[in-house]
Write a structure and sequence with these properties.
Elements: H1 7-31, H2 46-72, H3 76-94, H4 100-127
Helix pairs in contact: 1-2, 1-4, 2-3, 2-4, 3-4
Length: about 140
């Protein structure tokens, strides 16, 4: 069974969103006092951050999950995705001060890396002419 036609596009959206999230989480703590002066105070709002996290979770779960089950059956993208979200959530809930600006972007980069490997594995399966069916475990 082939992955949905929009799966590679979702991986691109997921990589972009994850990288933007990482940049946002790294820069906002240092610019928090100047953001309102620039009209960008909303970027420091926790709702913006959690919305970005939830958006990335849905995109990542769908894109990587559908490719895993329908195409490549490689677990690395799923581990990177889960690890990235755990790092982000831990960073937001338990890490304080400037350390959050280091920990949370690492989680975003892990998620972007998960999408990268998902695209790589999906492309390799298509290039080799192998497609998974639900009964196959490897190609």
């Amino acid at each position: 069974m082939k992955p949905p036609k929009h799966a590679p596009k979702l991986d691109n959206v997921g990589m972009t969103a994850s990288i933007l999230c990482a940049i946002h989480c790294a820069i906002v703590p240092f610019l928090i006092t100047s953001l309102p002066l620039l009209g960008l105070g909303f970027l420091a709002n926790p709702w913006v951050e959690w919305s970005m996290i939830i958006f990335a979770l849905f995109i990542g779960s769908y894109a990587i999950g559908s490719s895993y089950f329908r195409v490549h059956r490689k677990i690395l993208p799923l581990y990177l995705l889960a690890g990235g979200f755990l790092v982000i959530i831990a960073g937001h809930l338990w890490v304080t001060s400037w350390r959050e600006a280091i920990v949370v972007p690492i989680g975003g980069l892990l998620i972007a890396t998960a999408h990268f490997f998902n695209v790589k594995y999906t492309g390799a399966c298509h290039k080799n002419g192998a497609h998974f069916h639900l009964t196959h475990t490897h190609h």
